[in-house]
Amino acid sequence: MPGPLEPLAAIPAQIASVSDYEPFARERMSDNAWAYVSGGAGDEITLRRNREAFEALRLRGRVLSDLSGGDTGLEIAGQKFDAPILLAPVAYLKLAHPQGEAAALLAASATGCGFVISTHSSSSLEEMGAASSARRPWFQLYFQPERSLTLELVQAAERSGCAAIVVTLDAPVNGNRNREQRAAFRLPPGIDAVLTRVSSAPMLFHGTAGAPLCGGILERAPTWKDIEWLKSVTELPIFLKGIMDEDDASQALEAGVGGLVVSNHGGRTLDTLPATIDVLPRIAQRVSGRVPLLLDGGVRRGTDILKALALGASAVLIGRPYVFALAAAGAPGVAHVVNIMRAELEVAMALTGCRNLKAIGPKALWR
After folding, report:
1. For the chain, N or C: smaller number of CB within 10 Å?
2. How far apart are alpha carbons 18 and 70 in whole angstroms?
3. Mean pLDDT in order along the chain per 10 residues (367 residues)
4. Enzyme catalytic residues
5. Ramachandran area for residue 246 (φ above 0: left; ψ -120 to 50: alpha; else beta)
6. Contacts of 52 by beta carbon, 8 Å cutoff, 6+ apart
7. In angstroms, rounded to a whole number, what is the distance separating the alpha carbons of residues 244 and 75?
8. Please, which residues bridge with residue 74 across strands?
9. How far apart (Å, rounded) are the C-alpha atoms in residues 37 and 40?
10. Beta-bridge partner residues of 220
C-alpha cells in the first residue's frame, strides 16, 4: 500500500477555501497522524457543534456605508497584528510536515498574525528561531508535575522572546478520544515533545481499574493558586485558555490575568460541551472589555471571524485549518489559509458596513 504523498510543490487553483485543504492533507498524513489531528472526544458532538453553531448565525447586510480607511489591524497585549487571527497551539506539528512548528511560525510572521507555541512542540525554540520572528510568538503552557519544571518552561519562553504565556486549563486529563484509540495512536520515531522530556502530557483515561484519576493524577491538577504563583514568577501577560463559563471568567479577572481564551479544546476533551460561539456572549458580557477575549473552535471562514467579533471576541485562534494546510503545502499553505480568511473577513466587513474591527458589533448579526 503506498504511503502518504509528498507536500504540494505549488498550491492548485481548486484550493479556494480553507476547507479545500482537508482532502489534500489527508493524502499526505498517515492514518496515525490523521486520527490525532482530526479527531475529537467521545462521539465528537462538541467537535461538530463548534461548526454548526457558526453556520446557524446570520449576518446583517448593509449598504452605502462609508468604508474609507478600512483596516483589519489590532493590538493585543502590546503587540500589533495585521488581522484578528492567531495560530492556536497544536502539539507535534511534525506529524503534519517535517518542518513542523518552524514552518507555522514562518507563515505567521509573513502574514502578520500571531502564533502560539505548544508545550508539546516537536521543534525546539532554537529550531523555530522564535526570537528572530517579525512578531514574537506566544507560549502555551501546561503546568508540570513540579513547579520547578514549570518555571523552567516559562524561563525558556522568556529567553526565546515569547510575548505572552497562554495557560491551557481545560485538559488536566486528556479527553476520551475514541478515534485515536481505534487507530492505536502513537508518536512515530523522531517526533517528541522536545521542550520537555517529562511525561507532562495530560493522562488518557482508558477506564482501567484502580481509579487512576481520583486519588492519582488529579492530586496534581492545577488550581487558582497555581495561577497566583505563575503571576509571581513572570512579567509576561498571562492568558487563560479553556474558559467556558462566565463565573470562571470572573474569577480569572479577580486573579489579574491579561486575557482569556474561550475554548473547548477543539472538542478534544469533554464531549457534549456547548460550542464556544454559543457561550461567548455571556462571557463577553461578564468580562465587559476589561481584558482581551479570544475564541477558538470551529472557525473556518472570515465570516466566522466577524461573527465572533460581533459577539464580543477580540480575535480568534485557528487550529485544524492551518494544520491541514501545513500538511498539504508547508509554510506557503499556512500563509495561504491566513490570507484566505483575512480576505473573507474584509469582504464580510464591507458587506455589513464595518470599516474596521471597532465597528463590528452585535448589529452586524441578523436577529
Report:
1. N
2. 24
3. 80 97 97 95 97 98 96 96 98 96 96 97 87 82 93 95 96 88 92 73 40 62 95 98 98 98 97 98 98 98 98 98 98 98 98 98 96
4. 265
5. alpha
6. 275
7. 24
8. 81
9. 9
10. none
